[in-house]
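Quick one:
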Amino acid sequence: MKGSNEMTVKTCIIVLATTLAVVALSACERQQAASPLPIPRVAAPDKQAPNTDAMIWRFIGPMTGTRGSVVLGHPIDKNVFYHGASGGLWKTPDAGQTWIPVGDGQFGTSSVGAMDISLSNPEIMYVGMGEPQMRNNVSWGDGVYKSVDGGETWTHLGLEETHHISQIRIHPTDPNTVYVAAFGHAFGPNPERGVYRTTDGGQSWEQVLFKSESAGVIDLVLNPTNPDELFASIWEFERKAWGPKTGGAQSGLWKSADGGDTWTEITYNNGLPEGRHGRIGITMSAADGKRVYALIDSETRAGLYRSDDLGENWTFVSDYFQIIGRPFYYSHIYANPSNADELWSPNNRLFSSRDGGKNWVVEPGIKDDFHDIWIDPRDANRMIVTCDGGAEVTLTGGLSWSTQFHPEDFTGLPCLDRQRIPLQRVRECAGPGRLQVAQRFPLGRDLRIRHHSGGQRREW
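Output:
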């Protein structure tokens, strides 16, 4: 009986073990059957360039300024002014209240360096492309443009390789005679530099002053009382991404007394500093046809110099630090056409002097980095200035100014600077219709963009 019980227990154990084994095997088979088959590996498709032809651009802002290089007033219409900047050429018909683009879609590049309007026929205008303020983000241009209908239409006149045009001077009685101050390439040597002259309205050009492929003309003055007399400053300079090479033995002052046919170097005339020079700004006033001012960056004695005999002899006037600071970027000096003792020096701020440059005061302004000023030869109360933030107009000699104009960098339009995109960072965040923008903008000016969020229209 005992043996029979043991046999029964063993039989039960064997049956149980067999059952468990069958169940486990069945579960394993079911698991294997349920497992997906491995996906075979395939080669990645070739990268293709994105197709942007179907994209339609729309301007969403922000509207801010770009670096200004030239300002000018219409010689007859007192409410019309022009502003040339790295973001195009602009015109106000109402003394700075509203602004409209000029040459949009007709200029090959957007950066404007110089402009002049004919005094004998204000319908004739010349514009030189490429700003002459040689920062590491400087924008170049494609030569000279001309309009014969007050800026409605423009014709390209060549000089594409001049890249940076610092001044344009039109003969006061002959609009076909024009002088162009060409600096040339900022980032390396090239032969298209110096002073160019046309006597047939831009159909042909003659290079009447040339120093070398490493030095170009950075300023040019036409004597308002005798257009045959010209003064030019040559600057040896090369821009690098990490810094500039400014100044050298080829920098200096030059003079012509025969309309540009011949030139004489006056760099070291009596009273001018010895040694090498950097950038030089020059100016004259119609109130005194023999007086010349020169703001000189010098390794021996930088400062403002004055000549009362058309550059033969000079006297040192001032080395006020606010007008000689950061000379490669500034070195601007302008004389009031009706008062040779009144000077203006656009620098980090706007400075003026009423005693021939001996003493200086700071003028009001919203932004910093001023680069040009224009004073009406017939009405000294009518002025316009430009800086990195835009332009301001005054009809009261500086007692009051218009709201500063910030030219719009319309993304996708021809006036957009092709070398620099104004927005440093734009991205969509936290859902459609919400943008985050980071940008350098003028002092005291908010950056706002309208957007939709949660069904509501907002600004920030």
